[in-house]
Amino acid sequence: MKRTLLFALTLFTATAAFAQSLPAGTIVYALPKTSIKLYVEATREVFTAGPYAKFASKYLGFEVPVDNKESCTLKSVDLRWFVEADAAQTSTVSLKDSKGATNFLAMTATGLVSMFEQSTTAAVPWRFANEARTQDFNNRGHEPHLAKESTTFYRTVKTDKGYERVPVQQSQVVEKNIERRAEEAANAVYSLRKKRMDLLTGDADNVPAGDALRAALEEINRLEQEYLSLFVGKSSVDVQSANFEVVPDPGQTKQLYIVFRLSDTEGLLAPDNMAGRPVVLELTADKKTAIPVVEEKGKFVRYRIPEVVQARLLDGQYLLLQTRVPVYQLGRVVAFPL
Q: Which one-letter DSSP state was computed for residue 50?
């Protein structure tokens, strides 16, 4: 990353009254602090069970889910850290003489009081852009929805021999039950598969060639998938992206932060939304190295030495990622004499 001197990033613009109270040659600067940003992508699947799902085992020979379901899973997580000015930690330094100014500029040039240049990113909505679509199962087979059934009635008729029961055939239109429609859809699947095999093996009466054969096979495949969806169901998948930021608090004993929450029905949620399960960022500091204390006499500049921590992102007991991050506000503030 490109490095930028403290003056370019952390000098505060004081008010006129405050500026008049400072001696000539005195500047105000801020110590750096670290913020951690996570770029998260999640996929949400809305599954709609097929209307003939419970008959798939009987007529097609395999089991399929019979209940509607919504689920959300993390697709990718990217952790980045940035350095910014800590408005709560400001100091002043007098640079009236040329030697003090030269020493201060040399110090910032070596990186002791400097910051990484950071870019800004646009806000990303937390909710899915598209609502779950309702699946439509209009294609329920190549046979008509209604079927004819024959029923035999008997009528008593007077004859020369007396009264006799005479059968009378009567047809009526009744609605097919769901299992019969499932059977017809399964038969259509097998019929399409047989036609495809005949075309591929050349057993059909009129086998098209070239692009015509390719188009015929594509249409057979499409129709087969439509019939199969009546058993296996349909899924719609939406992708959601969101950014979440954590600023570690040095006053917090345990460095555990709920960065965001994940819900099967609502996707990525804010940390304070209890509708989803928490995804936690855990910061564990390495063993601190003893730093000698410099007696602050004369002119000096305060600066921070960051604490390098192990950053672990956890979804329950599942480790999503782990990396090392320098966190300035968890480190030591020391003085550098000018």
A: -
